[in-house]
Amino acid sequence: DIQMTQSPSTLSASVGDRVTITCRASQSISTWLAWYQQKPGKVPKLLIHKASILENGVPSRFSGGGSGTEFTLTISSLQPDDSATYYCQQYNSYRTFGQGTKVEIK
Amino acid sequence: EVQLVDSGGGLVKPGGSLRLSCAASGITLSNAWMSWVRQAPGKGLEWVGRIKSKTDGGRTDYPAPVKGRFTISRDDSKNTLYLQMNSLETEDTAVYYCTTERRDSSGWYGGADYWGQGTLVTVSS
Questions:
Q1: What distance in Å separates residue B108's CA from the closest CA in chain A?
Q2: Which residue, A8, A41, B17, B56, has fewest beta-carbon neighbours within 10 Å?
């Protein structure tokens, strides 16, 4: 089974900061990776698929990168609305989620 | 617009069974790849299984924690997806979501683009 490890588990940053979340796969998954945003009490929302392709309507301050085993989700200028938990998910072989990264606004 | 409505959750004793439903509109489930995802209280997301489209053979796959206990099926006449859960354990307590999987331009499926609202399953004596 492919394991996904996110870091950090929690991130606290100020409005306007550039923040990066890392997701590592236990084996190569090419670019078969998605990122989700989940706010408290809400259903997860797909932000990015195929490692770097933004879903329609997702603000351009979000970007994804990487291939193989190491991936990143970057928010170029953190906004108050970005306070949420972010998950990566591989879909190269079955599906596995990372454990999540909680992003807080200072 | 695609809408998924999850139902069937409730309180069940350990060892018991429950069947969850996901009623779809705006999409023909037999043509879609569908997954179930769960989230235990205060915890992260966990994939619990997938069914491929009819044209892709309708195969189902499950991760180790639920394999042999959970079964995904579809009723095409009702455009409804099911998750049959047997031999339930306290660790199965979670909100369960059905999701569609997006198909990209290369024909590869992955990424859950539509989600039901979730249904809570509580396994407790």
A1: 9
A2: A41
